[in-house]
Amino acid sequence: MRRIAATSAAALLAAAALLCGCSGLSAGTSQRYFVLEVAPSQVVAGAAMKREAILLVAPTTASSFYDTQELIFSRSAGQRAYYQFSSWTEPPNRGLAAQLAARLEQGGAFRAVAETTSSVRGSLLLRTHLLEIYHDATSVPGNARVGLAAELSDPAGRMLLARRTFVAAVPVRSHDAAGAVQGFDEALGTILDEVASWAAGAGMAAR
Predict the structure, then answer these.
(1) CATH among 3.40.50.10610, 3.20.20.80, 3.30.565.10, 3.40.30.10 for 35-206
(2) pLDDT band at 44 (very low <50, low <70, confident <90, very high)
């Protein structure tokens, strides 16, 4: 009887462990909050020709599912889920405009770069929209995937000057939320560099 009881207890523990493993990719039961620390710009500022245009950078919007503090993963194509016990300190799109404006200012292609939340008036407007940001865990350890759409316009003339979508996929170092966050930092750093370079080129063509 003791052997049967021990076997039953072991089976119950194994089942509980399996359920915990399926509840989400993150381990443990205490809530963890991650700060999005976008990787620094890898573009070396050169002697670019500076235009007289003043560029305004609008706050980055996000698709409704991604406008959240929850970290997101996918175990199969076409499906998304939120991590348990792992969140952002704020939705990842919130600080991207400031990061992007800093990169554009560093590039030196415009007379000035400012966010639309400032009192500066500009002649060009850059809008960005976070299409997706999730841990693609269909393989181990997976990839951090980010998609960002950008539009450059002339608000005075009500003209769309250029539009482009940027995508990055960075291999993560570990199959968990912490590994995904490191991948997101790198992926967003790469994308913001690309957006800044593209906006500078499009802005020069417009002026």
Answers:
(1) 3.40.50.10610
(2) low
Q: How many C-beta atoms lie closer than 10 Å to residue 139's C-beta?
A: 9
DSSP state of 26: S
Q: Give me the residue spans of the domains in the chain.
A: 35-206
Peptide bond before residue 141 is cis, with ω within 30 degrees of 0: yes
| pTM over cut 0.85 | no
Residue 135 near residue 95, CB atoms below 8 Å: no
* pLDDT, tens only, 47-97: 556 778 999 999 999 999 999 999 999 999 999 999 999 999 999 999 999
Give the up-direction half-sphere exposure of residue 37: CA atoms within 13 A in the CB hemisphere: 5
Residue with tokens 């399926």: 22
DSSP string, 32-69: EEE---PPPP-PPP--PPPEEEEEEEPPPEE-GGGSSS
Cβ(152)–Cβ(125) below 8 Å = yes
* Tokens 């245009």 -> residue: 53
Residues found in the chain? 207
